[in-house]
Specification:
It is globular, with a radius of gyration of 22 Å. Helix 2 runs parallel beside helix 5. The longest helix has 31 residues, at 169-199. Helix content is 35%, strand content 26%. It has 211 residues and is α+β, with helices and mostly antiparallel strands. It folds into 2 domains: 3-104, Archaeosine Trna-guanine Transglycosylase, Chain: A, domain 4; 114-199, no CATH class. Strands 1, 2, 3, 4, 5 and 6 form a 6-stranded antiparallel β-sheet that branches. A hairpin with a 7-residue loop joins strand 4 and strand 5. It has helices at residues 27-39, 114-131, 146-149, 157-164, 169-199; strands spanning 3-6, 19-24, 43-49, 52-66, 74-90, 100-104.
């Protein structure tokens, strides 16, 4: 079923369940947020990639509004909901400053492979260790999905958008698996190289070689 929704295009990929905090300063989006509060309805964030609005995005629910200033600027917290596909963009939502889109909602398969997911989590933690990054995953390990780890493995914006376009959890898991299989060996070799450089000039305890 097609639906007309207000949209806020951004250079960001929002996955279902994501928490996104934004500072709102443009008058048209101040109006959008005020209407969202008044109507208690979500708005859409289609992803902008390479200065072009993509045909995929995510509905977000407004969680809270804070720090509202005299000029209308505000800070908001949102949470990602359903993924949508844009059928048609509209320059303005009827009678408003902000834009709109007619969208449909694809069916999303959320059933993945538990064994693959466990390996993804292990590899994600290995990646963080190599990068010396301390970052908590958003849920207990048994509850994690591909959406939960996608922002934690160093995907580019274009790659995150490609993942958004995969409606099968098994396909999303495999996409992340391939990415980690590419980057982990590179990072491991760079870490080894860094250790060799740091050791250069140190006293070395090497065994002699029999002539």
């Amino acid at each position: 079923m097609e639906q007309l929704i207000p949209i806020f295009p951004l250079e960001v990929v929002v996955y279902p369940g994501d928490e996104l905090n934004l500072h709102i300063f443009e008058p048209r989006y101040q109006q959008l947020i005020n209407d969202t509060v008044k109507n208690k309805k979500p708005f859409g964030i289609p992803t902008v990639v390479g200065r072009k609005i993509g045909l995929l995005g995510t509905l977000v629910e407004l969680s809270s509004v804070a720090n509202v200033q005299a000029d209308g600027q505000m800070d908001i917290k949102t949470r990602g909901g359903r993924i949508f596909n844009v059928v048609e963009f509209r320059k303005v939502y009827p009678g408003k400053l902000y834009s709109a889109a007619i969208v449909t909602y694809p069916d999303i398969d959320e059933k993945g492979e538990a064994k693959v997911m466990r390996q993804l989590v292990a590899d994600t933690r290995k990646l963080h260790a190599l990068l010396k990054v301390k970052k908590q995953l958003p849920k207990p390990e048994s509850q994690l999905t591909s959406y939960d780890v996608a922002h934690h493995v160093g995907l580019t914006l274009a790659e995150e958008y490609e993942l958004l376009a995969l409606f099968s959890e098994v396909e999303r898991q495999q996409y992340l698996r391939r990415h980690l299989e590419r980057v982990l060996p590179i990072l491991a070799s760079m870490e080894s190289l860094k250790e060799k450089i740091q050791l250069n000039g140190h006293f070395k305890n090497l065994p002699g070689f029999e002539v």
